[in-house]
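# nightly structure sweep
# worker-07 picked up a monomer target from the shared queue
# config: single-sequence mode, recycle default, output format = structure tokens
# input follows
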Amino acid sequence: MDPGPVTGLLGPEADSPSFRAACRTLVDGSRRPDFVNDLAEDLREGWLGISAQALRRFAVTVEDLVPGREPPGLRDRVDHEVAAHMDLETARELPAQTTAPGRTLLTAVVDIELLTAKAVLARGPRLLSGPASPSPVGALRVLMGARRKARASH
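# output follows
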């Protein structure tokens, strides 16, 4: 993975394969459930971010993807994508490998991504009606905790 500007600022000075792997886990783990979370919006715009092959694999047709319907295969698809997202647990190693100022920020990013994954999983087929969001209270708790840590380190 090519470390982008933010990764370059937060990462260790020396090239670190474990840091690059944790970054890739964070990026991939964040992107996959996004495809199913954006399902309602994508369908309204006439675009489907799920391949025909993936739909067949989960016994779902494009015709099944209508708000109000809850095709069983869609639940399986959401579970599959969120399970991949839960690999984000391994991205928890990332903050420990960053420079001190970036640790708190990356910890909060990973925690909010995990909250979002849990919300997507809970919403399941109802994603056809609209996206899931992390609990505002949970997200606020993460952000306030990060703020406290950042202030305490100064």
